[in-house]
């Protein structure tokens, strides 16, 4: 179990994804936090990785909870270092859909004397409603001796002067005089939910639960022009959320009943209101009174819309809301403190204030929404050199990309540039999981946070056809859009060099051909069905000048890269009418780790043929790859792009 939080520390300017844990020393009641940015930069990214992320987080938490060590001190964030706790999800960037379910507690229906619904009652809020677990709720109302008018215009002599739906709204900062509270269990989706998912399958797409305070302006919702639900539910600050997302494994056991209810079969849920130093429990129930279980809700919604990682579903509120209290309604007033609590998740505490000048949704407490990185420091291995990281237009905004060989070299550099140019999700594939994890952590820290991009990585042997296919299928399930837009294939090996043909070992020849050619084939075959379905795709295969000209002493490598060029030309022609382009890049020698491992004589042999008399740079190839991956290059397919410093002019 992991309790995901998003915090600002006293030394950080951007939010940090962390796990909330009790103090390891047990010397105070304040929560501590464990830095999880080596796994993911956001909660939605973490949840999309499933069991892999849970296992990695459990390991970090165990380390941070151990007796004091340098590693523990680097991971553990003590209470004194926490500047503020934000909503675990950034409503502006992570929450695509914020869906709400009405009338979903049997006892809430009874208090209104209405029939229990037979299908869920669905409405929505905006992601911009979301604020943190201790942020204020703005009322924007008149003084408590007046009401806000709900319409009527100039002809309504009885309308109060602070009418919220007449022309007076232009001169007055008044919105509601009937602000109400609702505590709700929030579902957080972990990965793309296929349409028409059954209730028995829906549980696998629930990443965890959080506390939602569904704030409502009842006069707008229920009275204005027959009921302005959108305005009544979607005001800025109308959805405090947090303090954490508790992952689903905390709630679901092997018991079949537990799975049927999504683990939310009997959670205590309550809301308390403190006014004039007196605290009253205004809502108290249990999730056993839910009309529709959490898997049933997810299944029902999947009939109509596609849910994605980070989407939130508020599952309804128990009885006791202010508008139905007897003998008089109970409306929120300035200075009220509302506490919403759910068992196994925690408490959010929000004070009602008169207004928040000039704010929309959660405060800009960080610069995380700045998508243009102006400097990038040491994001690639030292032998490659830093990328420039200059401001780029967002040509690839929202796209989903896979990069093989992504843990180092060209793949690493291209993955970085894809994110800088707007890719929403970049998946690194390589052979060594520890190297992938290191690359993902570094890219996330230096690139992902600044550009609102998510990096994940998986170990995958590109020579294994079924492993490549299953990995691509998994990537499609975690894709925020369900799409795979870009495939860059840079995984490759050089093999033995400085050998003439009669000296080459057949086993080494087979190895090079398997990685460099069969690996490319496997990747193309796995992603093309997804690209055909969406009628769009960009495939970029990294070839080499050796494939065009042949390099003496590099038989296997030259042969494999020539095959890649031929494969690329064929695929480019086969799918030219389907919105899919397939191109290759043929660089001359580029200063990567693979090149650094070559004998110096071999490198000198190659650079001597280059008119510029130098190796290419990773950032030069990465910039070219991003252009080819963009819509700007849509009329070019089956082409082998040159990047040889003048060596090749054909």
TrEMBL record:
It comes from the Eukaryota. Residues 1-18 form the signal peptide. Keywords: Metal-binding, Signal. The keyword Signal applies. GO terms for biological process: small molecule metabolic process. One of its GO terms (molecular function) is metal ion binding. Residues 150-171 are annotated as: Disordered. The keyword Zinc does not apply. Residues 97-353 form the Fumarylacetoacetase-like C-terminal domain. Belongs to the FAH family. This is Fumarylacetoacetase-like C-terminal domain-containing protein.
